[in-house]
Amino acid sequence: MTKLANILYASELQRRLTAAGSPITVISVHPGAVNTFSDRQSLSRFFKFLIMPIVYLFFEHPDKGAYTSAFAAASEEVGKQRDKYKGTYLMPVGKVAEPTNMARDEALAKELWNSVEKFLLEKGL
């Protein structure tokens, strides 16, 4: 659900920036399956014994998980081809992917934007 909200919000932000004539490029990023469990001290011994070998086999090290975000933020390719990357969704490593139908729903993106705006106003932000 969080990734869906991220994609919807980013795509609406890109639509608004483009409509305002801004050159800013907004990109949603999926880092891939990243091992964010191994450094947690609170994990039980049982979990570490049974699950961690699987995590190490199938999940990427956090450093490698940052590659797609780094590509989006600092790649010469993105800088030179801004229009190609505006409002896109990137998968590892730096590949443009098609998000789900729901994530491409403009009405839902606008609804999320308006809900966030209303919430922030209610909080005085």
From TrEMBL:
The keyword Oxidoreductase applies. One of its GO terms (molecular function) is oxidoreductase activity. InterPro entries: NAD(P)-bd_dom_sf (IPR036291). It comes from the Eukaryota. Keywords: Oxidoreductase. PANTHER family: PHOSPHATIDYLINOSITOL-GLYCAN BIOSYNTHESIS CLASS F PROTEIN, PHOSPHATIDYLINOSITOL-GLYCAN BIOSYNTHESIS CLASS F PROTEIN-RELATED. This is NAD(P)-binding protein. It comes from Rhizopogon vinicolor AM-OR11-026.
